[in-house]
Amino acid sequence: MKKYEFSIIRPGGNDTLLIKGIVKKSLRKPLNNLAISLLPNIEQVGFYEYDQKSDTARLEMAGGEFCGNALRSLAYIILNGKVGEKKLKASGTNILLKAGIKKDKTAYAQMPIFKNLNCVKKVSNNLWLINLKGISFLIKRVYKKLPKKCAKSYGKELLQKFDLLNTKPASGVIFVTTNNLNIEIQPIVWVKQIETLFYETACASGTAATGLWKSIQKNDLEQTFKVLQPSGQIISVYVKRNRKKLTDVIIDGPIKVIKQKN
Q1: Helices assigned H by DSSP within 107-235
Q2: In terms of CATH architecture, what is 117-252?
Q3: Is the pTM for the entire model greater than 0.85?
Q4: What's the pLDDT score for residue 206?
């Protein structure tokens, strides 16, 4: 069996396995399943390549989706934990995204957004649809946290109801509770190509979707929201827009290298 160089990163929770080298699509699901069976804390698998000479990097998730936490993780690996910024290619979008480190043990990443404000749509009372490039989310406002199993089953039910299981590379439901102090999320994420459904311990893309939802609700043109993850850690989301369109969404938060093997 071929040996791979890999890193296990914890970007605010949401343990992510990044394997060096872009493998064939036919190998991605088997490698994803093997990794998750051998390493139960792993929630997602990505493959990457980095050319030092040209200073270019590309990230391909096992299911072809976009993943903000994996992008933060890749930037952290390439920069070797040191302050800096890179422009990276990622699955789920065809635009270059900036990602990097501003201070020790944190990493940030730009999110692939649609500029049109219609990417945030109210579906029904307490339910919104937020479309990002490479992943879509339903935001469901709840008044108290749901038990984990209940959140997962209800999340899948909502994804089925709104036909998001088969029409997007990845989709999810973010159950949001809010009070005067905190925005807290419970993210359920489905990846179509590899058929995985996770109650994620942290979700950067879901945090971005939550920030977009809050921005529209509050009618703020520029604001940073701090979002509490199931891991107990905070990922912040910066949203900038004008009256007609979105201009930038950046997520930032803690990150930790769990293991690296060459």
Answers
A1: 148-161, 204-218
A2: Roll (3.10)
A3: yes
A4: 98
Amino acid 1: pLDDT = 61
Q: Do domains 6-109+256-261 and 117-252 have the same CATH topology?
A: yes
Query: According to the model, what pLDDT value does residue 180 have?
Result: 75
Taking CA atoms, 48 is separated from 7, 15, 67, 136, 202, in Å, by 11, 16, 13, 23, 21
Neighbouring-strand partners of residue 9? 16, 257
How far apart are the C-alpha atoms of 180 and 210, rounded to whole Å?
16
Domain ranges (residues) in the chain:
6-109+256-261, 117-252
Mean predicted lDDT score pLDDT of the chain: 95
For residue 181, pLDDT beyond 80: no
**CA–CA distance, 62 with 226 (Å, rounded to integer):** 29
CATH numeric code, 6-109+256-261: 3.10.310.10
pLDDT above 90: residue 138: yes
3-state secondary structure 51-119: ECCCCEEEEEECCCCCCHHHHHHHHHHHCCCCCEEEEEEECCCCCCEEEEECCCCEEEEECCECCEHHH
The CA-CA-CA angle for residues 33, 35, 40, to 5°, reads: 100
Condensed to tens digits (0 to 9), the pLDDT of residues 19-40 reads 999 999 999 999 999 999 999 8
Q: What is the DSSP letter of 220?
A: -
**How many Cβ atoms are within 10 Å of 200's Cβ, its own excluded?**
24
- Cα dihedral sign for 52, 58, 61, 66? positive
248: β partners: 240
Tokens (6 digits) for 2: 């071929």
**Nearest 10 degrees: Cα torsion 235, 122, 170, 246:** -60
